Automatic annotation (TrEMBL):
Originating organism: Nonomuraea helvata
Coiled coil regions, renumbered to chain: none
HTH tetR-type domain mapped to chain residues: 11-71
UniProt-listed PROSITE patterns: HTH_TETR_2 (PS50977)
Highest taxon of source: Bacteria
Keywords: DNA-binding, Transcription, Transcription regulation
Protein name (database record): TetR/AcrR family transcriptional regulator
Keyword Transcription regulation on entry: yes
DNA-binding region(s), chain positions: 34-53
Amino acid sequence: MTTGLRELKKQQTRQSISNTATRLFIEHGFESVTIAQIATAAQVAKMTVTNYFPRKEDLALDYHETFTASLATTVADRPVGESALAALRREFLAAAARHDPVIGFSGPDFARMIADSPTLTARLRELHDLREDALTHVLATETATDPGDLTPRAAAALLTAAHRTLFRQITDLTLSGKDNQEIATIVTSTAHQVFDLLEPALTDYAVRTQPS
């Protein structure tokens, strides 16, 4: 088997395990389902499940790496002349238009699964904090800030709080029964309001300049 086929097989196995786990979590509740039950349903060994997913929570929140890196990646990839705030506003609006799960689009069953599980709710808070840490690091690097300067941390906290607020709104709208198109329309309007609140402080912060 070539390396490419081997990696594809691994990805397929990982996705199958995640899909099986999510189905069981939705049907029975996250807290009630065991790793052994997931392994049996996915027709793999228990060790295979834990090799792919060291934490049970990550079977449900399997996009966690993309989620925690998302804001930092957007800022790191912004074009010359664009601020961190403008880049994050632009990307959020694009994500809302495509109903991206990373910003909170999930469907009512999945959203209820998260809301009903104290463990998953706590893990989601942790992921928001890790996302703030990643954004802080990028902002500090991009602005060549001295280690003792809290400006990157403060800016990251504000920007992450905006996304956390919008994520919560999407979840609440999902649980209320609105479909993705309705949610996208509402959250797009809200996003402009939220990001506008940050404009006075962050309009000129971390603007990408021409490389020297």
